[in-house]
């Protein structure tokens, strides 16, 4: 992504409704996994490190990040061990294997999403889990996707195919950010029709930001037990079988 985006992200990702809401949802999902004590956790593509403190609640955290600026922001947080890395062929920390791999909005940036996920699966312990989030629905493609260098937006079936193709079994998959779907989809489609499509990373006024954050993060109470039929994004939990060929 462009350097200006990383500068902006590190300033807002603690409180912006989308980052904060996603973090609460991912936190709740990970808590439900009942990871082993002091689990070994890898966040691939950790960006500026906004998830590191949350992940550190569950074990020892490692992160990879290709971009030098984003990686330095992550290192400066002083949480976990952060190294340069590129998917699918430059994953550090070998020969370490992990109990959990987390990819929050990473796969959509990669030319080879299937090969990259396979490479990460090779670094999982038997029975290890992967938590994945990606943007959903190609018809929602907007300038935001262009400026963030996305390659694709996913449908549930497409993400499921990538996950199974990497040798994982799907424990849960659902669209999410469903409550705000009509609003976000409507705004994006209206902007495109008026040819005024702009990046939507800006933070709204605090009252609106707080309301959006509360609405978005409230979905954590149903995800895991209920699979939502639509949403701005997708979330999946997958597992490497205990007996598998390496």
Written account of the structure:
It is built from 9 helices and 7 strands; from the N terminus they run ααβαβαββαβααβααβ. By secondary structure, it is an alpha/beta fold. It has a 7-stranded mixed sheet with strand order 3-2-1-4-5-7-6, with helices on both faces. Helix 5 (113-121) links the parallel strand 4 and strand 5. The two termini are 33 Å apart.
Using only C-alpha atoms, the radius of gyration works out to: 17 Å
Number of strands: 7
Largest sheet: 7 strands, mixed
Structural class: alpha/beta
Order of helices and strands: HHEHEHEEHEHHEHHE
Low-confidence stretches: none
Strand order of the largest sheet: 3-2-1-4-5-7-6
Mean pLDDT level:
92
Query: How much strand content do the residues show?
Result: 15-25%
Gap between N and C termini: 33 Å
Silhouette: globular
Helix content: 25-40%
Count of individual helical segments? 9
